[in-house]
Every structure is written in structure tokens, then in C-alpha cells.
Amino acid sequence: MDAHADQKYLEIILRRIQISRTYRPAFGQGHRVTWQEFQQLYGNDPFYSWFGLNDPLIYSAHRIAGGLTSIYRQIGLGCIDSDIVDRYEQAKWLILQGYPQGRTTDSTYTFLRTVIGYDLAAFFERHAGHLRDAITQILHLLLVLEDGYD
Q1: Across the chain, what does the average pLDDT equal?
Q2: Of 22, 41, 94, 127, which residue is least crowded by CB atoms under 10 Å?
Q3: Contact at 8 Å (CB) between 26 and 142?
Q4: How confident is the model at residue 145, as a pLDDT?
Q5: Distance between CA 48 and CA 28 in Å, rounded?
Q6: CA Rg, the chain, in Å?
Q7: Beta partners for residue 97, in sequence order
């Protein structure tokens, strides 16, 4: 294990994840909406008020849902969907997936461990605490109504 490389890779991942901490929903406005803008947009609309859709929980729910999607994107989950995998397999192209075990021709982890000489699964195991803490911190920030990032 190369501690310097480990630290470098951890910093890269954490930097990507941190992008999600400032996520705001768009609510069809063409731009990200702050809590204050949400209050004006939905609070001033009687129709939304009648249904309770101007409730702060609505903003929080959208912010956390979109923030989670952002986290998944940042760590690479969901970027190779089943349609792409099917297309690659039908064309007999190589596609490495996130299986912890497998052959060097189908598992990212096996390929990196065997061909490159870097055990990515062990890296994630070593740093799981840091990664979990970073995600938990972001989720707490996303649940806060006040933006503070304007």
C-alpha cells in the first residue's frame, strides 16, 4: 500500500463528494432555488398554499433527494446504466463493472488489483470511515433550511 497514493485518491474522492453539499432544487425555474426564493415562489401562490406545498419540508425533501442524486453522480454510481451495459455487451465491447470479484475483463476491482497492482476494494475498506463521515456531513447540510452558500 502506498500511503501517499492513498491520501491523493482519498482527497480526489472527497473533493468530488463535497460538490453535493451546496445542492439546491430548481423547481422548474431554470436555476437553483434558494430557501428564500422558494418561500417567495411557493409562499405567495395560494394554490400551493392550499395544498401545503409551501411547507419548509417540501424544500427540504427536494433538496435532500436532489442532493443524494448528486452524491451518486459524484461517486460514479448510476453513470453506467443497464442500457449502456447491454449495448456494450451486444457489441462485444469490454466494460468493467463494480463487481468486487470476477475476471479482469468484467470487474473493475479485479482488473485494478491484478493488472494495475492497486487494490481499490481495500482502499475503500481502509477509508470507509472517512467516506461515511463525509456523506453524513453533507446530508446534514442538505437538511438545513438556511442556505448559507449564497
Answers
A1: 87
A2: 94
A3: no
A4: 64
A5: 14
A6: 20
A7: 107
Dihedrals phi, psi of 97, to nearest 5 degrees: -120, 175
**What is the pLDDT at residue 150?**
42
Task: With cut-offs at 50, 70 and 90, classify the pLDDT of residue 24.
Answer: very high
Instruction: Assess contact for 4 and 124: CB atoms under 8 A.
Output: no
Burial grade of 25 (CB within 10 A; 0-12, 13-18, 19 or more): buried
Give the pLDDT band of residue 82 (cuts 50, 70, 90): confident
107-123 burial code (b ≥16 CB/10 A, e <16):
bbbbbbbeeeeeebbeb
**Nearest alpha-carbon partner for 82 in 70, 74, 92, 90:** 90
Check if the beta carbon of residue 27 is closer than 8 Å to that of residue 41.
yes
Share of the chain above pLDDT 90, in %: 47
φ and ψ at residue 53, rounded to 5 degrees: -80, 0
Give the count of beta carbons closer than 10 Å to the beta carbon of residue 87.
11
Query: For residue 128, what is its C-alpha cell?
Result: 470507509
Which residues of the chain form beta strands (DSSP E)?
none
- Of 60, 48, 77, 54, the closest CA to residue 24 belongs to 60
DSSP structural state of residue 14: H
